[in-house]
Structure formats: structure tokens, C-alpha cells
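Title: Prediction job returns without error message
Component: structure pipeline
Severity: low
Priority: P3
Assignee: unassigned

Description:
Job completed but the reporter wants confirmation the result is attached to the right record. Sequence as submitted:
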Amino acid sequence: MTAFHRTDHLLTQPLCIWVGDKIGGFGSYRDSFELYNKAASTSKKIHVVAGAVHYDLYDDPKATGEAIEQLIPFFRENLG
């Protein structure tokens, strides 16, 4: 069971999601968009990393670099 059914009430803080565009076997691509769409956050962003699978976002320098390029400005805008 996930807590996604409560995100429209509980997830109110700024939210930045990265997802690879290569759909994997356990649903992270679909879950990312579901979480984004349901979140109550007023400041939220989703970024799709072209050519990446879920695990590339952990250890592939190109994919992680692209994600960090999105993360830093998002944090500066929302948490600074």
C-alpha cells in the first residue's frame, strides 16, 4: 500500500520530481505523474530526463547532472 491516496491532503511542501522517460517494470514513471498530479503542493515541478530509466537517476552522471540542474534553482526558489 502507498500513501498516494493522502497526497492531496498531506503533501503541501514544495515538490520537485524527476523521472526517466524509459518506462521500467515497477511503475515509477506512472507513479511519478500520479504523485505530481495528486499533490496539494502549490509549488511543484516534474522534469522528465530523456533516455533515462529509473536507476539512471541514481548513478548515471548525465541523468543525475540533468536532475541537479533542475534541483538547485527549485531549492533556491522554494526553500531559500
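Comment from assignee: result matches the submitted record. The chain has one domain: 4-79.
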